Amino acid sequence: MGMHDQQPPWGQKKKPSSPEDILAAIIQKLRDSFGGQNGGSNQDGDQKDQPSGQGPLAGIGKVFLILGAVILFQVVYTSFYTIEPGEVGVVLQFGKYNRTTSPGLHFKIPYLEELNKVNVEAVRKEEFGFRTRSPGKQSVFDRKGFDMEALMLTGDKNVINVAWIVQYIISDPVNFLYKVRNVPQAVRDASEMVTRRIVGNMDFDYVLSNREILAGDAQRELQKELDNLESGVKIVALQMQDINPSDKVKPAFNEVNEADQDMKRLVNEAEETYNRVIPKARGSAKKIIEEAYGYAVERVNQAEGETARFKSIVTEYLNFEEVTRRRMYLEAMQEVLPNVERVYVMDKEQKNLLPFLNINPSPTALKP
């Protein structure tokens, strides 16, 4: 079959549907172009003459034409790019920051501008003292091999195990990409530094019972450190997952905790007894003092009354001696005689006692 009967290199073929097909078609066309330079051979082995227009220069021209088409396709293909929702595009021109693009379809100059896509809505996290193996409603955590991250020394020289998690998002894509070489490592280093410094300034009991205050202080200081580094991230949350004494000191810690609970119980019982006995004793003492004060006032008033009465009697006695004496005698008898059961009259001439009158006889004397 002659050259004019063969399918030309640029003949009609099925359109490729993928980049691999395009590359395979280009390679096949190159092979066909270089294969057509030598021409075919007949059955007798005679070399056929090359047709006009199929020399070496024509094959090289086809190669450059194909390469130009490939370059043009690549230029057009790389000139447009799409930014997905939640992402931003950072464009560099000649290696220098030029602009930041929002989600959508955009254009850039090929070979002169470079694009980096950054997801600014994804929440990234760093775990300390543990690792999440299977997240979900019932997450599975692995704590083995991470003791060096969690062990810390408190302000009162006690060892404590602190596990925490840091969640952050990208707030400045440019700083995130170009200010710090490894932002996740910077977050880990700064978080460990801040947390260890805060725990080291607190007592053991304070760290155990104030994890929320500890987390809030650590989050504020960590954000300040990352802002000084211009890392371009914002701390969303810093949570203390677990705060416990070290496994080696847990038995001693439990004994100390039990002793502390016993001490608090005894103190509460002592305070209850104090609150019950002391106010009662104070009330009794106040009552006695008030009674003594009242008794003193009564005695003073009574003494003053007796004194005034005695003075009045003396005055009357000096003026009317006989009358005053008789009146005093009658008043004394009026007070004494109602309480006397028997009255005896003494006769100076009689040596024996004679019953005179039973003014107030006993109940037995009234019986017949």
Features:
9 helices, 368 residues, disordered N terminus, Tetrahydropterin Synthase, Chain A, 3-stranded antiparallel β-sheet, alpha+beta, rod-shaped, 4-stranded antiparallel β-sheet
What does this molecule look like?
The protein is of the alpha+beta class and 368 residues long. Among the domains are: 124-246, 2-Layer Sandwich (Tetrahydropterin Synthase, Chain A), CATH 3.30.479; 249-319; 321-366, no CATH class. It has 9 helices and 13 strands. The strands form 5 sheets. Strands 6, 9, 10 and 11 form a 4-stranded antiparallel sheet that branches. A 3-stranded antiparallel sheet has the order 3-2-5, with no helix packed on it. A hairpin with a 5-residue loop joins β9 and β10. The longest helix is centred in the last third of the chain and has 70 residues, at 250-319. The chain is rod-shaped, with a radius of gyration of 58 Å.
- In terms of DSSP E residues, the strand content is 15-25%
Specify the CATH homologous superfamily of the domain at 124-246. Band 7 domain
Count the E strands: 13
Described by its quaternary structure, the protein is: single chain
CATH class term of the domain at 124-246? Alpha Beta
Q: Give the uncertain stretches in residue-range form.
A: 1-13, 36-53
Gap between N and C termini: 181 Å
Counted by DSSP, the helix tally is 9
Radius of gyration: 58 Å
Structural class: alpha+beta
Report the mean per-residue pLDDT as an integer.
79
The name of the CATH architecture of the domain at 124-246 is 2-Layer Sandwich
Succession of helices and strands: HHEEEEEEEEHEEHHHHEHHEE
The CATH topology name of the domain at 124-246 reads: Tetrahydropterin Synthase, Chain A
Percent helix? 40-55%
Query: Can you summarize the main beta sheet?
Result: 4 strands, antiparallel
Shape: rod-shaped
